[in-house]
Amino acid sequence: MTHSFPKALIISESPAEMRFLYAFLVSNGYEVDVFNCLDQLNSVELAAVSLLCVDVEMDSGIIESICKGLSKTHLSLILFSFPPDNLVLTRWVNESIFLSIENGFSISVVVVQINNRFELQDESFFKSAAFSHLCYSANVVLPSYEVNCDHVVDSTQSFSYSSISSFSVESATKDCLSCIESEYFLDSTALQSVDPLPFILRSTELIPGLQKHSKPLCMIVSELFSNALEHGVLGLNSDLKKTPEGFSNYFLEKQKRLKEISNGFVSIKMHANRSLIDRSVTVVVEDSGKGYNPDLIAIEANQEGVPYNRGLYLVRYLSEEVTVSPKGNKTTILFKWTL
Asked: What is the pTM (predicted TM-score) of this model?
């Protein structure tokens, strides 16, 4: 009996630069073809593809071509992005999911935000645990990848990525069951220029009924991201805020450290679910910092006259559950909502 391998396509005007990606996919059981552009494929060939990897810099019109393909098939899509296209592509990732939901298809999209093209020619880039993890985020089947819910990304990773997966079906009772998973991994370069909150909250609009609860959810995610960036990555101390002028000094020090950072990361993962029995959003925010003692923060927040450390109290008030990792650098919240 002939064994059928999953099919992957690599689209790039510079195939030699993608040779390590090619080798990576072949080693994980994929049948891989390389093309210069999508125009070389017909709809039948594209429909057989389960994974599409695209060097986006090659053609400014590639996004429109991919959109046409998305309406014909279910697939995992990995886009390799380079400055200054990163923000444009991340916005498109959010918008493209509306198409998949509207047509009842499942799709996983990852934008890999690389700082320079030389990284594509580095074999260690594709062999890294971080790259395997983002493939897993795109629902790419990797026999060699070991799923770990407590996966910790290497803080020396030199690229950022954003991903969204969506799934929409109609049940026998005609109730729409929808699930959105999104993940935003920001390295030190991205943290200096990208605010992920608008993109994250945009994805919540895809779940029917959740949009009207976006305000408290926005407050939760904003607070967790600020804590991860300011106290985790930048190592800022809230004691600077003890005086009125301290708030100004705190902000100036934040801007100074943000310009100087050369490593570190913040990872934001969100899973939103709408079903007959479960309407919830789980958010996990992790950073590369040393962590903190949540009990100590709670004590300080309850002290009279302390004008800071109220954020975690607000998060606990708005959330159904809050869990902080033993190290203190990863916070998981459960947000429940009703129609």
From this structure: 0.75
SS3 content of the chain, % helix, strand, coil (to 5): 40, 25, 35
Residue type, 53: C
Determine the CATH number of domain 188-339: 3.30.565.10
Ramachandran category for residue 58: left, alpha or beta (phi over 0 → left; psi -120 to 50 → alpha) = alpha
Ordered by start, the domain boundaries in the chain are 1-170, 188-339
Integer Cα distance of 210 and 56 in angstroms: 32
Helix (H) / strand (E) containing 124 = helix 123-127
Whether the CB-CB separation of 38 and 66 falls below 8 Å is answered with: yes
> In this structure, which amino acid lies at residue 197?
L
**What residues pair up with 170 in beta bridges, in sequence order?**
176
Structure tokens at 243: 């005086």
Task: Kindly report which listed range (105-114, 269-278, 300-309) carries the lowest average pLDDT score.
Answer: 300-309
pLDDT top residue among 304 and 172: 304
- Please state, as a whole number, how many other Cβ atoms lie within 10 Å of the Cβ of residue 303: 8
Which tokens in the block code for residue 264? 């570190």
Task: Single out the residue of 267, 273, 286, 97 nearest to residue 196, CA to CA.
Answer: 267
Q: Is 280 strand, coil or helix?
A: strand
Distance, CA of 191 to CA of 199 (rounded, Å): 14
What does the alpha-carbon distance between residue 247 and residue 36 come to, in Å, rounded to a whole number? 53
> 1-170 in CATH: which number?
3.40.50.2300
Token representation of residue 64: 């429109």
Residue 306 has which token pair? Answer: 């302390």
For residue 198, cis peptide bond before it (omega within 30 degrees of 0) = no
HSE toward the beta carbon, residue 232, CA cutoff 13 A: 27
pLDDT of 270 over the 60 cut: yes
